[in-house]
Amino acid sequence: FSVDPAAHNPGRQFVAGKVPLGLKRKGLRVLVTGGAGFVGSHLVDRLVARGDSVIVVDNLFTGRKENVMHHFGNPNFEMIRHDVVEPILLEVDQIYHLACPASPVHYKYNPVKTIKTNVVGTLNMLGLAKRIGARFLLTSTSEVYGDPLQHPQVETYWGNVNPIGVRSCYDEGKRTAETLTMDYHRGANLEVRIARIFNTYGPRMCIDDGRVVSNFVAQALRKEPLTVYGDGKQTRSFQYVSDLVEGLMRLMEGDHIGPFNLGNPGEFTMLELAKVVQDTIDPNARIEFRENTQDDPHKRKPDITKAKEQLGWEPKIALRDGLPLMVTDFRKRIFGDQDSAAT
Ligand code: NAD
Ligand code: UDP
Ligand code: UDP
């Protein structure tokens, strides 16, 4: 005999470990906004595998059905094509709020839409969380640190962001989303979590999304030159997607609000990244220098002391180990093996 208490009284009663005596624990009901995207779809895989009932809300702007198609037909999975800028009524226990284009090319494509997604979309998801008493996790970004004057970046650093630049729709949008999240926490007593995600790569990234890892990998596979912007001495830290998903789930399940940096502290210049891609795919791949984009941060590297101490989390997969896993996926997608798209 099992009863789903949440069906009668939506909300907190059903959080892990708090199930009333005598009732068998079932999986949680989890909403993943942006769940058809790169990070979201990997998170969905883990949640479904854990036995949760997962609802994906996604407008498919940068996400793809192929990323979650392997769950179609599973009664514990549901996908709703919906734009988070519009209100929605659902009943869940947890909300992972990822909906937002992440690649600079995509978020600059329609900047007003990007900021609406971050502000109005986040407001709607917080309003939803408040109504049903769900725990809410925001996927913020290392971009809140802007072009940082502190290195590596610690969560207490307030950042150096241009409020009127071409990246502001994303940077300032995410900063406002963090503000909203904390205001709902303080004002409405909402249970919230904030992750500041650093550059992440892996299978299912959009092949032509303009981000550096996807660009270099696709270019090397297609025998095109690797496009290094500027002098290539700017740095980033690259995290493999499974490490991020583990961090997001620990954050959601743990007792700490954050914000937490979730990233791999291994720091690479773009020229060093190009070398790793050459070593992995094609030692003869040429490098071509291009003009850099406006307001490009010069360096970025997370200090993850807080996540290590409070979440017991740290990344496990080094760039040279993670890159080949992504290359396998890109190779199959670029050269047309249909079976591989959703693996
Ligand atoms: P992605 O573009 O692959 O996924 C974003 C998903 O959100 C897509 O499926 C897209 O269709 C959906 N979406 C966008 N606007 C929407 C809207 N208005 N309504 C409903 N759905 C919408 O990007 P990703 O790399 O998977 O990023 C996921 C989240 O993580 C984003 O919030 C991003 O800002 C954050 N993040 C990612 C990285 C990274 O390196 N991947 C770094 C920092 C932060
Ligand atoms: N909202 C939603 N789903 C819900 C509850 C709220 O989409 O189940 C939206 C609602 O439309 C509003 C936003 O979330 O625009 C903020 O809701 P809240 O109740 O916090 O504020 P209010 O509606 O009082 O402005
Ligand atoms: N970049 C590059 N070549 C490319 C794409 C990007 O050299 O083909 C550089 C870009 O200028 C930036 C870094 O790579 O310095 C990371 O860019 P990305 O768009 O991946 O992420 P960001 O951290 O800027 O959001």
UniProtKB/TrEMBL annotation:
It is a single-pass type II membrane protein. Pathway: Nucleotide-sugar biosynthesis; UDP-alpha-D-xylose biosynthesis; UDP-alpha-D-xylose from UDP-alpha-D-glucuronate: step 1/1. This is UDP-glucuronate decarboxylase. Residues 31-324 form the NAD(P)-binding domain. The keyword Protein biosynthesis does not apply. The chain holds residues 95 to 437 of 442 of the full protein. Belongs to the NAD(P)-dependent epimerase/dehydratase family. UDP-glucuronic acid decarboxylase subfamily. Keywords: Decarboxylase, Golgi apparatus, Lyase, Membrane, NAD, Transmembrane, Transmembrane helix. Its main location: Golgi. Its cofactor is NAD(+). One of its GO terms (molecular function) is NAD+ binding. It is an enzyme of class 4 (lyase). GO terms for biological process: D-xylose metabolic process; UDP-D-xylose biosynthetic process. It is found in: Golgi apparatus, Golgi stack membrane. The keyword Transport does not apply. Catalyzes the NAD-dependent decarboxylation of UDP-glucuronic acid to UDP-xylose. Necessary for the biosynthesis of the core tetrasaccharide in glycosaminoglycan biosynthesis. Its EC number is 4.1.1.35. GO terms for cellular component: cytoplasm; Golgi cisterna membrane. It comes from the Eukaryota.
